[in-house]
Task: structure prediction
Amino acid sequence: MNAPDADFIIIGSGPAGVSAAFPLIAAGRRVLMLDAGDDAGSQEENRSVRVLGSDLESLRADDGSSPKLQTPVSRGILERFTRDAGISGDGFKPIGSLARGGLSNIWGAQVSYLDAGDIADWPIDLASLQGSYERVSQRIGISTNADFTTGANSEATLPLGATAADVLRRHKAAKPADGSFRLFAAANAILSEARPGRAACDLRGDCLYGCPSGAIYNSRQDLLALRKSPHFRLLDMQAVSLARDSGWTVKTADGSSFSAPRIILAAGVLGTAALLADLLPIGGKGLRLLNSPTLAIPLLSPARLLRSPTPTHSLAQLGLSLRYGDGASDYVTGAIYEIGSLPAQSFVNRMPLGRKAGRAAFELIAGSLLVATIYYPGDQSRSSIHRDAMAKKGLTIRGGFAEGFEIRAEALKKALRREWKRLGLIPLPGASLAEPGIDAHFAGTLPMGESGPFGTSPVGELNLHPGLYVVDGSILPDLSSKYITMTIMANADRIAHRLAAL
Ligand SMILES: Cc1cc2nc3c(=O)[nH]c(=O)nc-3n(C[C@H](O)[C@H](O)[C@H](O)COP(=O)(O)OP(=O)(O)OC[C@H]3O[C@@H](n4cnc5c(N)ncnc54)[C@H](O)[C@@H]3O)c2cc1C
Ligand code: SF4
Result:
């Protein structure tokens, strides 16, 4: 290896990559970050371009996926990944990004923290994550929703929408039908107070189309701070292969190569698998992939019929959880959204009415509509990554559900129906189980603490390849139903602190 280009090369500028970069540059380590995206973003575009798309792509037919995935910014990111990542799906929608900032350009920003029970099988304890959780929360800015009409107004709060506030009040007034049911105000990575370069949330509810003021956390924002350091360099280049000599060399799509003694992979679970495909013995059984089976349930609040929505953001208003079994991870986690500001056509198309009648009905009831999204833990999925037999390079992801999942899902829907009734909500027709992959909650391909060719050490170093570290969701040994990005970031921060000390 010639003189190394950096002490560490980080591949990926999403939430995981930037979280690994901060501790390293703070310790004076030279970091070169490679990202397949570039600086072109939607931040400066006017509202009509953000909503309709520069090629009016919003007017294309609804493809049945989540409204969040159909906005121009989402379509742009997902379509590039589909085109250029070399990953196809078989009963699985491979959601990923080749964009600066990764999927944080389009994420829902809801935040959860794992507890000791959630990580009981990990090779690390909660105490080793705690400091990282705190550092990351401080850096990205978290707000909890609160019902301002009841006087709650502590720091870092944003107002709950009136329909969500009504549901939460009903929950507090009557005991749940199932003792394990929890309903609480959601915590989101949205600013309630301005910071340099980011405005506070303006409550106009445009969130689905990319937050123009930067109130929603996006890891692009961190790149501005990182680039102020003389130890940090960012190049817009797509890594295509990794090779070991005395250190590691990364080759990029334009034919350049860069070397460092240690490489940190933060390309997202699917992107990292693609980069490692030639370095791992992926046989006929494929590489196990955990994802969260996801259910969406439209709900009507008759008490709020014909009442207008109140100003709030359109990310998660409420969070919920409910147990469905005795195992430590046998619980679902979910979120409740107000529908008022979401695109009408996504709902109209799913209503059992004609388009015209559907739109009229939607306008009448929009303020009283909610949607709940429910996530299962990763052990309810059966997905795996395979080398594409037809293409020389490339992967296919096969998606599926654990045996008996349908029965458990029906039982859960029944248990939820009792809670909806107690909360004064009517489930509407159109509840749907998403195609595996749409959840974008991925983990478990290269588990920390596992022996064997796919395992990694507690700091994410591949058993088979010393000097190659992984910091994204790939190394989480299991996938709880909780929102996962905060833990991915905290774990990347934890690992980078350890690497900075080597
Ligand atoms: C619609 C949607 C809503 C979501 N909502 C939530 C939520 O509410 N809460 C939550 O916790 N999570 C949510 N998520 C998931 C969240 O976005 C991901 O967990 C998170 O972005 C993962 O971060 P990452 O850095 O590991 O990967 P990514 O964000 O995918 O970033 C990967 C980076 O690697 C780069 N890259 C990939 N391959 C290469 C290569 N070969 N060479 C160079 N660079 C490369 C990409 O350009 C990108 O910058 C959501 C996701 C989606 C799609
Ligand atoms: S309402 Fe949504 S888009 Fe508008 S500033 Fe708040 S978070 Fe951003």
